[in-house]
Design a protein that fits this description.
Elements (H helix, E strand, L loop, with lengths): L3 E5 L20 E2 L2 E2 H11 L4 E6 L4 H7 L3 H9 L3 H11 L3 E6 L6 H6 L2 H4 L4 E4 L3 E4 L4 H12 L2 E7 L9 E7 L4 E9 L10 E9 L2 H8 L10 H11 L2 E5 L3 E4 L3 H14 L1 H17 L1
Parallel strand pairs: 1-4, 1-6, 4-5, 8-12
Antiparallel strand pairs: 2-3, 6-11, 7-13, 8-11, 9-10, 9-11, 10-12
Helix pairs in contact: 8-9
The structure holds uridine 5'-triphosphate.
Uridine 5'-triphosphate binds next to helix 5.
């Protein structure tokens, strides 16, 4: 039973400067909703309401976003705007969210290590705060189902084209079914041609509490940071790790081009924008 989720959201977001100089990339809106709200919603839709956000310098607006705002509630209530009143109340009551600050940005592995007191001896889900996974069945729910089957660490992966493997953590192993692989290899951003597969780690994990001991043993790796993939390699030497090729699509908004694509695709999914925005895009394409 997975009852807790950890959302690392402390990173600098250097790939999105200057927007991220004084505001979190996790708060960048996709149409009108901050990325991290999609991520918290995925937890809730997967049956998890106990969420720990790894926060840090310049990330206060994340806490404010999920906190109550009495003045705003009062103002909307006075205007008798029932729709927005309910939306705001829903957001404020979405989940039971806790925060811990990562004081020095020592990488994703170090960020997860800050969850050790909150998670204790329980397995937990990890959802990167800058990545939206659009799926019919929430991806975290998909991973929980695999965890229940194998009782081991589960990593969400997606297939990427072979010329892009050097951008991701790549896994390799023995395929057990169409979507499930028992891993024997994990490499962070391998050179093209040297990757064990084209299965890229997709920003969602189910981890066991053993990860905390593994992180303690992990020395600094790529970028002089404590890499989660390196800690997972220590786990792999001791126990099974499964990967699951997700049913859904990954949107990594940490890089600008993916952010732009995500904005367009999500706008086209919205009833109120689909028609006018499609018209606009068609006109624009004609002029290109
Ligand atoms: P990224 O790998 O995208 O790193 O983090 P980053 O530092 O935020 O961004 P760039 O590369 O400088 O542009 C993936 C997720 O892990 C969090 C980030 O906030 C993001 O949601 N993270 C990363 C931490 O919480 N702490 C860290 O030390 C690093």
């Amino acid at each position: 039973m997975i009852k807790k989720a950890v959302i690392p959201a402390a990173g600098f977001g250097t790939r999105f400067l200057p927007a991220t100089k004084a505001q979190p990339k996790e708060m960048l809106p996709i149409v009108d909703t901050p990325v991290i709200q999609y991520v918290v919603q995925e937890c809730v839709d997967s049956g998890i309401e106990d969420i720990l956000i790894i926060s840090g310098k310049g990330k206060r607006s994340i806490e404010d976003h999920f906190d109550r705002n009495f003045e705003l509630e009062k103002r909307i209530n006075e205007r008798e705007d029932e729709f927005w009143y309910n939306q705001i109340k829903h957001l404020e009551e979405l989940a039971n969210i806790h925060y811990v600050r990562q004081k020095e940005l020592n990488g994703l592995g170090d960020a997860i290590y800050h969850a050790r007191h909150h998670c204790g001896n329980e397995p937990f889900a990890v959802l990167l705060g800058d990545t939206i996974l659009d799926a019919v069945i929430p991806v975290t729910q998909q991973l929980i189902d695999i965890y229940d089957q194998y009782n081991s660490t589960v990593i969400a992966v997606e297939r990427v084209s072979k010329d892009k493997v050097n951008r991701y953590g790549i896994v390799g192993g023995n395929m057990i079914s169409d979507r499930i692989t028992e891993l024997n290899e994990m490499v962070e951003k391998p050179e093209i041609g040297k990757a064990p597969s084209n299965l890229a780690i997709a920003g969602r994990y189910i981890l066991t509490p053993e990860i905390f001991k593994a992180i303690e043993k992990t020395s600094r790796g790529k970028g002089n940071e404590i890499q989660l993939t390196d800690a997972l390699r220590i786990i792999l030497a001791q126990e099974k790790i499964m990967s699951y090729t997700i049913e859904g699509k990954r949107y990594d908004i940490g890089n600008k081009i993916d952010f732009l694509k995500t904005t367009v695709e999500f706008a086209l999914k919205r009833d109120e924008f689909r028609e006018p925005f499609t018209e606009y895009l068609k006109d624009l394409v004609k002029k290109l």
